[in-house]
Design goal:
With about 325 residues, the protein is of the alpha/beta class. About 40% of the residues lie in helices and about 15% in strands. Helix 2 (about 25-40) runs parallel beside helix 8.
Amino acid sequence: MPRRTVEAVTTLTELSARGLRPDAGTYEAVDVARAAYGRLVGVGADRVAVGTSVASHTSVVAAALAPGSEVLLPEGEFSSLVQPFVVRPDLKVRCVPLDDLAAAVRPETALVAWAVVQSADGRVADDAAVRAAAAAHGARTLADLSQAAGWLAVDAGAYDYTVTAAYKYLLCPRGTSFLTVSQEAQDVTPPIQAGWSAAEDIWASTYGPVAELARSARRYDTSVPFLCYQGAVESLALLESVGVEAVAAHNVGLADRLRAGLREAGHEPVAAPGSGIVAVPGLGDRAAGLERAGVRVSARAGNLRVSFHLYNTAQDVDRVLSVLG
């Protein structure tokens, strides 16, 4: 997290500890974060709901599907995007290779769900083709932006739904997440997790049935950890000040440098042009050795996965290559 984020969370924690902020935060800060996220992904704040996890947001989408509906997903997709559909035995979940996703959409497909950037290997999906296929067959779309928002220019308005875990490239504290819902999808998606914070008038809705749910996507809000969202305000402001295009150029430039060095060393990374994530099949067991050398990377699905962001430099790339030999 950025230093300014840590300082904001620390300050709020200290005020709460002294009893000066007994609610440990404000809904005003949540709405500032909501609006900032919307600007980063190209939609208005009225399309954005807040929560704590991708799985909980996906569950809302799953609940909107009629019994017998077919959900199409890529093989090997992250479980938070898959399991909320699987736990409904009355849905038909079908998985195909990512490259075949667009071609696999058929008339009986009700929803296509996929990550714009794949978690395990950093591949960037052919979004335009998938969205076109979904539109041709009348299927709704759910995009997971967790590995994309913050470094890749995305338009959340191009999908019926998007979900994002904000503790990744958005640099927010863990426990911050966002759901976007198109106006059309809001008309058919029940707010199954609605509590008082999903009311149009929050403070008039603390007891008994809520008289009126929010007229915007805020009706899908869940009660949020204020500390996380106080930090999110600062993280998202930083990213807005730098600009997503500048972040992308930085991240992808470092990733391309690593890909070239890996090939020179005889390793073949997953083909993921334009991605800020580099994955090398079969080298996942090298992650522990890299960490002992002070380089933190990930092991995902057998891949050694290296993800670059603002805090990385060319020297970091060279350290990875040096340790891998």
